[in-house]
Amino acid sequence: YAWEAIANGEDFKLLCLDNLYIHGKIYKVPDPKAVVQIVHGALEHKERYMDLIKFLNKKGYSVVISDNRGHGESVNKKYPLGHINSLDQVIDDQLVINDYIKSHSDKDIYMIGHSMGSMIARNFLKNYDYRIKKLVLTGTVTYNPLVYLAIFVGNIINFYMGFYGNSKILKRLYSSGMSEGWLSFNEENLMEAKNDKLMLESFTNRGYLTVFHAMKELKNHRAYKLKNKDLKILSITGDCDQVVGGKKGLMDTIKTLKKIGYKNVSYFIMPHMKHEVLRENNKEDVFKIIEEFFNS
Asked: Which intervals hold domain Serine aminopeptidase S33 (predicted)?
């Protein structure tokens, strides 16, 4: 349907690889400065981004957000909650959404990827960096060299226990180094996450393996076609985020993006914030940084 005809907060669904419908929502403003494509994190869902979406709408940006496959409403029998079959599929899902935006709007597209979404976004860049003008990474997951061990174990478990099992070993490998309350200092956010029925406990065995692959591929420099080396990339992380790997991990992430060939990579470290900088007590500070980056 025509972009103009879409009401604020209009649902859409798009048929993606392996006959799965990806469900999403469009939050439209008249004559937007750009359209923002949001990729959410692991084991969560699109509805957790409402504060950011309202802020971006108010500042003149239309927003498109979807549930990643195996999350929220983007499920079916073959793809139950927590199941992702391959990294290629989640990248292709974002490509289909990007195509959908382009077919309805001639405005620039900016992308925001949070946590696992930051890994999906960075993998999206390999072939499709020319399709977006700016990229914001939040809760930016760092590469961990132990990922090769995780993949080795993951392959064995998937072979012997099947794709759809829920291995405790893989869960432990996935969440190693995360203590309770790792999401945020914001207690209200922790309570909401705990009581949210769409917040998932775990991935399937295949889902974990896909996440490990997404991390491994962050260092696959040669796979990046680099069609848009001038792409502006901004990372925003909390100074107490356990997923970032400290200052050393963050610097490795920034250095990797520069080594790949991206010229405009910058970062902010937010004081007294943990992983979910978009849902922390001072989230408005993060929103303002994103706005300034988008307006620059």
From this structure: 31-281
Convert the pLDDT of each residue in 165-223 to its tens digit.
999 999 999 988 787 889 999 999 999 999 999 999 999 999 999 999 999 999 999 99
Q: Is 165 left (phi over 0), alpha (psi -120 to 50) or beta?
A: beta
d(C-alpha 203, C-alpha 209), whole Å: 9
The predicted model scores a pTM of 0.95
Phi, psi of 14 (to 5 degrees): -125, 135
Domain coordinates of the chain in residue numbers?
A: 3-295
The answer as to CATH 3.40.718.10 being correct for domain 3-295 is no
Condensed to tens digits (0 to 9), the pLDDT of residues 225-258 reads: 999 999 999 999 999 999 998 899 999 999 999 9
C-alpha to C-alpha distance for 210 and 120, rounded to whole angstroms: 11
